Amino acid sequence: MLIVSCSHGRHLGRLIAKKLRMPHSNLIVDKFPDDEIRVRFDFNFKNRNVFLVQSFYKNISDCIIEVILASKTAKELGAKKVVLVAPYFPYMRQDKRFHKGEAVSQRIIGGLIDKYFDAVYAMDPHLHRKNILGNIFKIRAVKLTANNLIADYIKKHIKNPVIMGPDEESYKWAKNVAEMLGVESRILKKKRYSSYHVEVKLNKKIGLGGRDAVIVDDIVSTGHTILETAKVLRKLGAKNVHCLCVHGIFVDNALSKLKNAGIKVVSTNTIPSKVSKIDVSGVFSHDVIK
Ligand code: R5P
After folding, report:
1. Where do the DSSP E strands lie in 139-258?
2. Which of 1, 3, 7, 140 is the most buried (most CB within 10 A)?
3. Do residues 127 and 158 both lie within one domain?
4. How many angstroms separate the CA atoms of 73 and 60, rounded?
5. Residue 214, pLDDT score
């Protein structure tokens, strides 16, 4: 067995391999002058299972091409099985044709991974209408979660928290974390008008006077969901507003916007950033690679 860190998996691949005391190597990735990607393995893995660790952020399309090139090459060079370990797996939100003529990207990208891999492990994938990975992939597909790590972090760092889920889909994280902690929670209602315009409101009132409100969600991208939720929570009297998320994508200066709004943000390290303080390598080494 061999753990291979792809270009966007280096921050976790080595940690996972270390925890498992398994051989680790980096995939060598560079580009030709015209932007074509070249990948190269510099070790022998004949008859071994190869685990490619890749998180999909920033140049997502490049990340996808890279793992396809790597997987096919590993097979050609004699790997027994090639498994994709995806701390953050993208394209999960476009799970239906929201507008006439649109691609259902989730299905298409899922099909691509099916074609090149023997199995996929993804942490907290955004499963909404297709609520299990088996509805997306034909290969063995396993969902992992960082919920217990998020609950532990809250327990250690935030006193008397109330957990808030910013939209109906967030219950899988917010409600679950609240139950682990045995604390109160609410799920808000969100209406999205565009990528940068959302509205959230609370259905069932809750008094937050002087308490710490903790928004728990899977993804923070532009940060607008969290900014709007924080406004509602402050009106309800929250003393502090925290945001704990699994995947901190943080596009368009989202982190600064959240910081300027006085929101304390912490994410896991499925995507590395200044606030990725919760390490998920243990989940992968424990649940996946045995
Ligand atoms: C979608 O439902 C997700 O759970 C997140 O709430 C969403 O992706 C956050 O996006 P943004 O940060 O751009 O508002």
Report:
1. 140-144, 161-165, 185-187, 189-194, 197-201, 212-220, 240-248
2. 3
3. no
4. 20
5. 98
Residues with beta carbon inside 6 Å of ligand 1? 166-167, 169-170, 198, 217-225
pLDDT of residue 289: 61
What CA–CA distance (Å, rounded) separates 42 from 25?
8
- Residue 274 counted as domain residue: no
- Determine the residue type at 121: Y
- State in Å: Cα 199 to ligand 1 middle: 12
Classify residue 170: in a domain, yes or no: yes
The predicted structure's pLDDT at residue 97: 97
HEC per residue, 6-56: CCCCHHHHHHHHHHHCCCEEECEEEECCCCCEEEECCCCCCCCEEEEECCC
CB 6, CB 67: distance < 8 Å: yes
What is the tens place of the pLDDT at every residue in 56-76?
999 999 999 999 999 999 999
139: tokens are: 């290969």
Q: Tell me the C-alpha to C-alpha distance, in Å, between residue 187 and each of 178, 203, 248.
A: 11, 8, 20
Query: How many separate domains does the chain show?
Result: 2
The token pair at 184 is: 């109160």
Of all protein residues, whose CA lies closest to atom 2 belonging to ligand 1? 169
Q: Is 190 a catalytic residue?
A: yes
